[in-house]
Amino acid sequence: MQKRYLPLALLALSPFASADECGNVTIADMNWNSATLIANVDKFILENGYGCDAELVPGDTMPTGISMTEKGEPDIAPEFWSNSHKEMLEKGVSEKKLRFAGKAFAEGGEEGFWIPKYMVEKHPELATIEGVKANAKLFPHPEDDSKSGFMTCPSGWTCQITAGHLFNALNLEDAGFEMVDPGSGAALAGSIARAYDREKPWFGYYWSPTPVLGRYDMVKVDFGVEADPVHYEACITQEGCESPKVTAYPPSAVNTITTESFATDSPEAYTYIANRAYPNADMSAMMAWMEENQADGEIAALEFLESYPQLWSQWVPADVAAKVKDAL
């Protein structure tokens, strides 16, 4: 029988080529819950669905980015908050050393001013900032009942600068509000937990995905305007900004970064990495589950794969999904 050979372009697309092509893959396992969850899910799917020899290596944002650019390893940084390292990453891309594979979180990093859902259910107008201002007395200051309280970020955090500028731009002081510094990130989270457990009022800054927003049903207040990323970067994020204007928080870029060599040498595995993006609500729920169960990334990955097959199976071809489910 005459042998038939597939052209290389077709071979790269063949479902039988993935195991041979994938080979060794290193994945940065960063030291926070969402990042270690994604890294462990990637490891399981790449190993069991694509036949990769996947290995987790310790990582952190800046050293991982530098190592990928200068040494070509690790192959994948699953969760990379890109804005603060934009210049380094763009240089790596321009030198054909790195690729932006896709979004780690479907909505990006999400910031905003939030109130508990149970308050919006009682007072639907609180879903807007004008409604909050008109009902400022519903949010008593924790130390002075004659004022209204807005819980801001702890001192020294960048979000204290952005929240402060938006507090001023929205004229919240004129409505009777005063900013309350919680003192720490744990205290900020704790203030939401205490309010929710007692169905008390709460109004302040928070971000997603986080365990807090996975555990407590909060509503992001509508500022009534679209995001203005240019003004946000030029003014709202700058401590010395003197004329802040109202803008919605633009999504923070949270990307998956890969080396160019991984993208080129393992096209099918790269396509999975480029396809997958975690909805913020699902990631927040998983982070809450990890905290409640004191679970590490490996255990959490199994929980995610068992609990969200309707989500992750959309990221891979049907035959790969079947292999992953068999491995579970």
List keywords for this structure.
17 helices; 2 domains; single chain; D-Maltodextrin-Binding Protein, domain 2; globular; 3-stranded antiparallel beta sheet; 328 residues; alpha/beta; 10 strands; disordered N terminus
Indicate the topology.
Blueprint: H1 8-13, H2 18-22, E1 24-30, H3 33-50, E2 53-59, H4 61-71, E3 76-81, H5 86-94, E4 98-103, E5 110-116, H6 117-122, H7 129-134, E6 148-151, H8 158-169, E7 177-180, H9 185-198, E8 204-208, H10 211-215, E9 218-220, H11 229-236, E10 254-259, H12 260-265, H13 267-275, H14 280-293, H15 297-307, H16 309-312, H17 318-327
Parallel strand pairs: 1-2, 6-7
Antiparallel strand pairs: 3-10, 4-10, 5-8, 5-9
Helix pairs in contact: 3-15, 3-17
Task: Offer a concise description of the structure.
With 328 residues, the protein is an alpha/beta fold.
Structural features, described:
The protein has 328 residues and is α/β, with parallel strands linked by helices. It folds into two domains: 8-107 and 253-327, D-Maltodextrin-Binding Protein, domain 2 (3-Layer(aba) Sandwich), CATH 3.40.190; 110-236, Glycine betaine-binding periplasmic protein, domain 2 (D-Maltodextrin-Binding Protein, domain 2, 3-Layer(aba) Sandwich). 47% of the residues lie in helices and 17% in strands. It is built from 17 helices and ten strands. The strands form four sheets. The protein has a three-stranded antiparallel sheet with strand order 3-10-4, with helices on both faces. A three-stranded antiparallel sheet has the order 8-5-9. It has a two-stranded parallel ribbon with strand order 1-2. Strand 1, helix 3 and strand 2 (53-59) form a beta-alpha-beta unit. The longest helix is centred in the N-terminal third of the chain and has 18 residues, at 33-50. The chain is globular.
